[in-house]
Amino acid sequence: MRWFWYASPQTFYPLAGKLAVAGGLAAAVLAVVGLYVGLLVAPTDAQQGEAYRIIFIHVPAAWMSMFIYVVMAFWAGLGLAFNTRLSGMMASALAPTGALFTFIALWTGALWGRPTWGTYWVWGDARLMSELILLFLYFGFMALHASIEDPRRADRAAALLALVGVVNIPIIYYSVKWWNTLHQGASVSLSAAPKMAATMLSGMLVMALAFWMYSVAAAMLRVRGIIRERGS
Amino acid sequence: MSEFLQMGGYAWYVWGSYGVTFACLALEILLLVKRETKN
Questions:
Q1: Which pLDDT does position A105 carry in this prediction?
Q2: Does residue A4 fall inside a structural domain?
Q3: Tens of pLDDT, residues A144-193
Q4: I need a labelling partner for A158 at 20 to 30 A (CA). Which of A38, A50, A208, B1 fits?
Q5: Which of these, A159, A166, A175, A168, lies nearest to A109 by C-alpha position?
Q6: Which ipTM was obtained for this model?
Q7: Total domains in the fold of chain B
Q8: Close Cβ partners of A13 (under 8 Å, ≥ 6 residues apart)
Q9: Whole-angstrom distance, CA of residue A117 vs CA of residue A120
């Protein structure tokens, strides 16, 4: 593959269109399968009843909120290191979708917290606070970028913020281990046997794939808009 | 069907989660497609 060929926004533009369509179609198919498994096939939870079904969007959305941030920071760092135009555009294209999944993780977490913990929100809880900080990091990235007129300078300034903010990602992930928190531990571990029923786990993984493909589609559509608007 | 919609008494929590999530995603795609066709 000719990587450097696609480093130019103009040559990447049509490819982004194809990726957006492919991602959108994959997301739609995966979402139908994931929702079917999550809402109709997976059994009722013995302790939480039907309330646990929030897991099929809460966990995938929370994963995407962290994953998109890392990918955004990767592109931002690449732009800083090599001064490539497309890198900054990719970072900017990812930020709103990352912020959206962060909001969804917080929102569904609140709606899940009420029936299980008895409260929508706890100030000071490490997992909840670090995820809220993630939302502010996304907002900060977008606000800083929007406040600087020259797009190349805006890319560099926002990239610095994105890179500094990466430190929050392991804090979110390990918050449930490092601090006492209401939040339960990791649902899925690569080193331990699954703690949940196979249908629950597969429904969650399919929904995660659906959100991933959705994010690809949304970011590719947005990067096309950015390429058009910057006129390069 | 109505039993399914009631979600064992957790309808607000479950459908509030799914509804807001898919409304958000649909809105984002709508705005992006609008931007795609506008210029």
A1: 98
A2: no
A3: 999 999 999 999 999 999 999 999 999 999 998 898 888 887 777 766 66
A4: A208
A5: A175
A6: 0.95
A7: 1
A8: A224, A227
A9: 8
Which CATH number is A141's domain given?
1.20.120
- Nearest by CB to A57, from B4, B18, B33: name it: B18
Burial zone of A71 (CB within 10 Å; 0-12 exposed, 13-18 middle, 19+ buried): middle
pTM of the model: 0.94
Domain count, chain A: 1
Position A162, amino acid: A
Q: Which residue of B has its CA nearest to A27?
A: B25
Q: Which residues of A touch B (CB under 8 A)?
A: 24, 39, 44, 49-51, 53-54, 57-58, 61, 96-97, 100, 103-104, 107-108, 111-112, 114-115, 214, 217-218, 221-222, 224-225, 228-229
Domain that holds residue B28: 2-38
Domain assignment of residue A2, yes or no: no
User: Is residue A96 assigned to a domain?
Assistant: yes
Question: Is residue B2 within 8 angstroms of chain A, CB to CB?
Answer: no
Quote the domain boundaries for residue A49.
Answer: 11-230
What's the CA gap between B23 and B38, in Å, rounded?
A: 22
- Return the pLDDT at A197: 80
Local confidence pLDDT in tens for the 39 residues of chain B: 788 999 999 999 999 999 999 999 999 999 999 999 875
